[in-house]
Amino acid sequence: MYVYLATGTSDFMEILQKKYKKETMTVLYGGQQSLLMHVTEGKTKFATPQSFEVVKSLNEFEPNGFYTITYIDIFVDSLTSFEGRMQAKNFQFINEPGFIAYKLLKPTKSSVFAIIQQWTGANSYEAWKMSASYKTDFDFMDEHAPIDRHTTISAVAPYTKMYSTAPVEEEIEEDDHL
Known about the structure:
This protein is of the alpha+beta class and 178 residues long. The protein has helices at residues 10-19, 79-88, 122-129, 132-137, 147-153, and strands at residues 2-8, 24-28, 34-40, 50-58, 66-73, 99-107, 112-119, 159-164.
């Protein structure tokens, strides 16, 4: 199974989703830039996506929810060992209230791994992030780990982006002159 991610405006991502309605595509809204996630056994419809192979997963993504995508850019000589370590991990977040599904993604054309998690809402994710299991599950994100540990596997610091399956409502500024 493969996951392809394309970025763009939410309007354009919605147009693509409607155009390819027979495909499993989900628009993930994240403020000014949104993602269209294409999950498939075959090739993608996107011209230049981020391309990943699913190497470990639990449950299927549901149509609605809160998503996080954690990107981990690994040095090429550490790709195999990092993948093995992640596949062997017994993630504790799968037992957290509000957890729905996750996929560990191996890059097909780069050195950036990704972990996509789906939660019932931002509060569930934030509660897990404040728990002790977060430090164990995402030990590669641990800011208290020795510096040399990160520099031996990570090309840059890992980071997480948050998305929702519902459009982010923009605040409308009131005109004082009316």
